[in-house]
Amino acid sequence: MATLTFHGGARSVTGANYLIETKHSKILVDCGLIQGTRHAEKENYKKFPYDAASIDAVLVTHAHIDHTGRLPKLVKEGFRGKIFMTRPTRDFTEIMLQDSQGIVAEEAEREGREPLYSKEDVVGTTQFIEGVEYGKKIQVTEDVRCRFRDAGHILGSAIIELWLDREASSAKRETVKIVFSGDLGNPPVPLLRPTEYINEADYVVIETTYGDRLHEKREERKDLLEDAIEDACEKGGVLMVPAFALERTQELLYEINSLVENHQIHEVPVFIDSPLAIDATKIYRKYPEYYNKEATYLIESGDQVFQFPRLKFTYSTEESKAINDVPPPKIIIAGSGMSTGGRILHHERRYLPDPKSLLLIIGYQAAGTLGRRIFDGEKDVKIFEESIAVKCGVQAIGGYSAHADQEGLYKWVAHIKKGSRLKKIFAVQGEEGPALEFVQLVRDHLGVSAEAPMAGDRVEL
User: What domains are there in the chain, each with its CATH number?
Assistant: First the structure.
């Protein structure tokens, strides 16, 4: 018998954490931080609902902190197995966990409690990581094999195929195949190869962040970005972009580089004000073999896709503060992507009250975050315990999301249904509304059993 238990990411976008148990093995898929609310912080501090020391291996879909952020806590509680992830994900995870540890330590100090994990826990975690290649089958344990496929979400992101040996009787052994989508990409995108399709599975665990909506097309999103830049520049304001350090920042650099080279926008100062994004961009430069054909061609022809006139990377605190001395118009791209921390908060405190400026939202904003409250239209928000009026423009471009929309998710899972004996689909990593709408879509149009599990639900495979 094999079982699957949903310990995170159930009717929630963040905190992905799934436990597979077979006769001989206990395998985790992802071990992410729960994000978005004060309640989430309390949940992160709770002891894992399983014995960390009993886990044989962790398979990580990608480096975003809602998929990796509790790995050091797992190690702190006794995990000593292997952690499998692609090579780019390994490099990203190291810098993401270092950054995360600094944030959780600051929060703990403010509130007078122990940090969720220490720098030593992060170092300990990286020692267990093993980088793998797309497409290669790996013997994880005696009765579990896996393969990583390109999810097209961020550099190195993966769909994970798992084969579980199950003894049906003393004389017969069966194999059950379960696929974890991780976060599926939103192709075509400027840098990455398209999401790979999977031909067959018995069970599918699929993300549904945008299970209830459609994005703009790629051509539309670039036009909207151009319009937003021109709008802020013509008004003499500041374009603020809360951006995730992985993928969103690099995509924006790629797109702005194209707009500058083709003289579609005025040359204005562009600041990447995020040490994490700067470190991540260095890793992007390290793995050009993971790019799509268009990006590879540009790089081979000598184009510096992460460099253009008036672009400045501000790594130190002093460089960040000096941005204030540069008069508008200017563009500031800074973390965090949901305005939950990082340098973007200092810029928002300064420019949200400015009617000439524009806040451009290009990524998912989880419920309870500052970014979500601004997106939902709140006109007065708290930043550093200070009341800040929101008088600037607020615009969202959904097409820059790294997540597949409803149509992309449906096409991906429909392809699996077409070629296999698909028994059940589990909708995860989406808020309740999007997850349930996608479940209904699958039931109505694919005729496959589907559900949006609750946290703690356990199913037999």
Answer: 3-213+402-460 (3.60.15.10), 218-400 (3.40.50.10890)
